[in-house]
C-alpha cells in the first residue's frame, strides 16, 4: 500500500505579505512579509519536497517525471496543479492571467485558471472580481485614463466564501484576507494596476498593460457555481467546482469520514482543526497547514477528528 506524500511548505516573500501564516498556521517563517505558502507545487519558482516515505527528499517535479505510476500515468508534461495559502496583509495588485494558448505562446507555460476558498477575512474586506467595461476599446480607455473606480467591480467577502477565477478575469485579493488557492501550475501574472506602490528601494512594480488588455475577457463573465453538499452523519463533503482543469472539494469532518478517490490522485490541505488521516492500518497526523498528495494506489481513506480540508483532483 502506498503512503500519502506529505509536502514541505515553500514560502514566498511579497510586498503585500504578513506573518499570519505563523500566527494562524504555526509555520516558522523566514520573514514577516510572507505572502504565500506554496503548499503543493512542482513549479520551477517553488518546488515542494517530499517529507516522508521512500521518496523523501525528492521534489514533486522529479517525482512526476520519474514515478508516473504514483499519478495514474498522466499525459501532461508538467504536474498540472499548484496549491497555495495566501495571507494578504495589504491589497494585491489588480491583475489578470492568460489562458493556456496565450500562456504557452507568450510565457512558455500553462495559463492560469484559479479558485479561492476564503479561510478568513477581516470585517469589511473585499476583493476585486470582474470589471464594468463592455468592449475592448472601453476597457483600454478606462485603463489609460486611470478610471479604476468606474472600471473595477468590488465584492465583499467573508470566511467560507468560494470564488472561481477563470483565466481572463480581472481580479485582486484585498487586504485582511487569507485564502486557499487551487490553480493551474503557472506563475504568469499580468498587472493592470498596483496603486502606484513603491518597494523598499522606491521603485514601482512593473505593469503589463498591453498583455492585460489582450487576455481580459470582455464583457466580464461571472461564473455560476453549482455547489453540492452531501452530509454524512455530522460530517459533510462539499463539491465547489468540477472543471477541465481541476475539481475542488471541502471535507468538513466531525468524528469520522470515509472518502473514496474520484481522480487518479488527490491533493489535500488542512485549513482548520486537528485530526488524523487513516490509510489502511496507518494513521497520519493532520494539523493546520498540513498538505499531502494521495497517490493513485490509495483508493479509499478515512479522516478522523474535528478538521476542515480543501481537496482537489483532476478528471484525467
Written account of the structure:
It is a single chain. This protein is globular. Strands 1, 15, 16, 17, 18, 19, 20 and 21 form an eight-stranded antiparallel sheet that branches. The mean pLDDT is 97. It is mainly β. The protein has six helices and 21 strands. The chain has two domains: 211 residues, Jelly Rolls (Sandwich); 86 residues, Jelly Rolls, CATH 2.60.120.
Notable traits:
316 residues; mainly beta; Jelly Rolls; 2 domains; eight-stranded antiparallel β-sheet; six-stranded antiparallel β-sheet; 6 helices; 21 strands; globular; isomerase; Mannose-6-phosphate isomerase; metal-binding; Man6P_isomerase_Firm_short
Summarize this, please?
The protein is built from six helices and 21 strands. With 316 residues, the protein is mainly β.
CATH class of the largest domain: Mainly Beta
- The CATH fourth-level homologous superfamily of the largest domain: Jelly Rolls
Q: State the secondary-structure class.
A: mainly beta
| Count of the domains | 2
Unreliable spans are none
Largest sheet: 8 strands, antiparallel
- Summed up, the helix count is 6
Mean pLDDT: 97
Number of strands: 21
Q: Give Rg in angstroms.
A: 20 Å
In the CATH scheme, what's the topology name of the largest domain? Jelly Rolls
CATH architectural group of the largest domain: Sandwich
Active site: 191
Domain Phosphomannose isomerase type I catalytic: 6-105
Pfam families: MPI_cupin_dom, PMI_typeI_cat
Domain Mannose-6-phosphate isomerase cupin: 237-312
Amino acid at each position: 500500500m502506498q503512503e500519502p506524500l506529505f509536502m514541505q511548505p515553500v514560502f514566498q516573500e511579497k510586498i503585500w505579505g504578513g506573518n499570519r501564516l505563523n500566527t494562524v498556521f504555526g509555520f516558522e517563517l523566514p520573514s514577516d512579509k510572507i505572502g504565500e505558502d506554496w503548499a503543493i507545487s512542482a513549479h520551477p519558482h517553488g518546488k515542494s519536497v517530499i517529507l516522508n516515505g521512500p521518496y523523501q527528499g525528492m521534489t514533486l517535479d522529479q517525482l512526476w517525471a520519474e514515478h508516473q505510476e504514483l499519478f495514474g500515468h498522466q499525459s501532461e508534461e508538467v504536474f498540472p496543479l499548484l496549491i497555495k495559502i495566501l495571507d494578504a496583509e495589504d491589497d494585491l495588485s489588480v491583475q489578470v492571467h492568460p489562458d493556456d494558448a496565450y500562456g504557452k505562446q507568450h510565457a512558455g507555460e500553462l495559463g492560469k485558471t484559479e479558485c479561492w476558498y476564503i479561510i478568513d477575512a477581516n470585517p469589511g474586506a473585499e476583493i476585486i472580481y470582474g470589471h464594468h467595461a463592455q468592449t475592448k476599446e472601453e476597457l483600454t480607455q478606462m485603463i489609460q485614463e486611470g478610471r479604476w473606480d468606474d472600471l473595477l467591480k468590488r465584492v465583499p467577502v467573508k470566511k467560507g466564501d468560494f470564488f472561481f477565477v477563470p483565466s481572463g478575469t480581472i481580479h485582486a485579493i484585498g487586504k485582511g484576507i487569507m485564502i486557499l488557492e487551487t490553480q493551474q501550475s503557472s506563475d504568469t501574472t499580468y498587472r493592470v494596476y498596483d496603486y502606484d506602490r513603491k518597494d523598499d528601494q522606491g521603485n514601482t512594480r512593473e505593469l503589463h498593460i498591453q498583455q492585460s488588455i489582450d487576455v481580459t475577457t470582455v464583457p466580464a463573465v461571472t461564473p455560476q457555481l453549482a455547489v453540492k453538499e452531501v452530509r454524512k452523519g455530522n460530517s459533510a463533503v462539499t463539491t465547489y467546482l468540477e472543471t477541465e482543469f481541476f475539481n475542488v472539494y471541502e471535507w468538513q469532518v466531525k468524528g469520522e469520514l470515509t472518502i473514496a478517490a474520484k481522480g487518479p490522485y488527490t491533493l489535500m490541505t488542512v485549513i482548520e482543526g486537528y485530526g488524523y488521516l487513516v490509510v489502511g492500518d496507518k494513521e497520519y497526523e493532520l494539523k493546520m497547514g498540513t498538505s499531502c498528495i494521495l497517490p493513485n494506489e490509495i483508493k479509499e481513506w478515512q479522516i478522523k477528528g474535528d478538521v476542515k480540508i480543501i481537496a482537489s483532483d483532476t478528471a484525467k
